[in-house]
Structures are given as structure tokens and as C-alpha cells.
Amino acid sequence: MKPLGTVLGKATAALTVVTVVIAVVLNYFDDPVPVKYTSMTEDMKTLEENFRHQNKSCFVLGASGETGKVLLQELLERNIFFKITLIGRRQLTFEGKPYENLIQEVVDFEKLDEHAVAFQGHDVGYCCLGTTRAKAGVDGFIRVDHDYVLKSAELAKAGGCTQFHLESSRGADKNSKFLYLKVKGQVEADIEALGFDRFSVYRPGVLLVDRQESRPGEWLARKFFSAMSAMGSTAMSIPIQAVAKAMVSNTLLQPEQKAEILENSAIVSLGKSAENK
């Protein structure tokens, strides 16, 4: 039997060759950037300072997940909200001074109407809530990714929230034949119908994140999409940090329409704007 390192080495080499071919093809099919902003040329630091003086508050759904964790860190580092509330099914434990002023609201997502007060008084809502069919089954997936998310948005709207930022998925389509993409697309449409002053949907590709525990298949997948990202393709994957940066940066900007969909390449561009501020 060949050593694991040798097997992985050959697999990585083969993966690199395949990546080169696919990356060339994807250059012709990269996401457009449909969203235009009237203030994109303004200095990000100035935008942050102006927003900070408005003393706005926000809540985060899904702060225990991969994107939610990084989003929370980004919000704390950029310090644009005077109050941040985490809404979730359990109390989270944090260490360090930056987390001292966080407010946590523990709710039962099966009985959200009983927790309406947790959603009151926020200006901006961020939703990174989600699960998978493998973890929760078909019914559980629909309940979390559609029912919980939509009900949270309804309560937030009723509680005075004017901006709602939703992490969705590349390919989301309420008419899709694939359950995952159909549910994602349906919840997008249902939340848009609520009529927020500002509704932003983020459709990232494969999220590049190093998990503490990872199977060989997941490791190879990350290597594959990381290589594609390094070659300049923004069609299929994105570092999870870029998604978080984009969600915060986009909060500061003024789109030309109330509802907007940011595909993977647009998220990458916004993420870079935060890095270059």
C-alpha cells in the first residue's frame, strides 16, 4: 500500500491539471456584476465613520456557523454598530474584551412568535442561518433554511428593521429541480415580498474555509477550488472571509434598487474593497 502522502500528492497534481482546464473555461462564464452603487468610489473609511455616527444596531442569525463566526468578527473589528445582538438557539461562549458588549437572545425557532421581542429595535439584520439535507433530512432542511429564515425576517420587519442581508447560494432558483437551490431561491423571493427598504442577497460559490476536522474528500475539494481562486476565477468559489467583508461593506453602500442579488464575483469585489480601505 502506498503512503497516504504519496497518494495525496498525486491526487493534488492531477487536480491542478484539471483546475487549469476548468479555470480557462470559466473565464468565459464568470459571474456578471449586475449591482451598481452610487457611492462605490467613496473612501471606505469615510463611509464607516459616517455610518458609525448614525448609532445603528444590528442582529446576526447563525453566528455559530462558519460564515456567521467570521461575520461577527468583521462587525466587531470595523465597529460600525453601537449594538450587536446575536439571535440563536443557544448561548454562545466568547473570550476577550471585543465580545464583552454583545447581547445574546436565546430563542426556540419552533416557537418564534413567542420571541418577537428579540427581533425588535434593530436597524439591520444579517442572516447566515442554515443547515444541510445530510444533517437535518429533507423536512429539517426546509424548516431551517426556509421557515426559520422567513419567520425571522417577518419578525424583524415588524420590529422596525429596514435592512436585511441574507446569505444564500450560487444557483439559487425557486424553480430549480434541485431541493437545495429551490429552497434557497424560494426564501429569497418570500423575503423580498416583505418589502424591506433594503434587501441584499449574497450568492457565494463554494466557501473556502479550513475546518478543524476534515475528510479527505473535503480536503481535496478545498485544494481544487483554492487553486481555481488563485488562478483568478471568481465563478465557483470564495474565501469565507471575503463573504463576511462584503456583507459588512455592502451595508455602507447605496444600491440603485431596494432588492439586490450579489453573485460570487460581485461578493469578491466587495470583499477586496474592504481589504484595500
Key traits:
single chain, two-stranded parallel ribbon, Rossmann fold, 277 residues, seven-stranded parallel beta sheet, alpha/beta
Explain what the structure shows.
The chain is an alpha/beta fold and 277 residues long. The protein has one domain (35-215, 235-275): 3-Layer(aba) Sandwich (Rossmann fold), CATH 3.40.50. The protein contains eight helices and nine strands. The protein has helices spanning 4-26, 44-52, 66-78, 133-158, 179-192, 216-230, 240-252, 264-275; strands spanning 57-61, 83-88, 103-106, 124-127, 163-167, 198-203, 206-208, 237-239, 259-263. It has a seven-stranded parallel beta sheet, with helices on both faces. A two-stranded parallel ribbon has the order 7-8. Helix 6 links the parallel strand 7 and strand 8. The longest helix is centred in the middle third of the chain and has 26 residues, at 133-158. The radius of gyration is 19 Å and the shape is globular. The N and C termini lie far apart (52 Å).
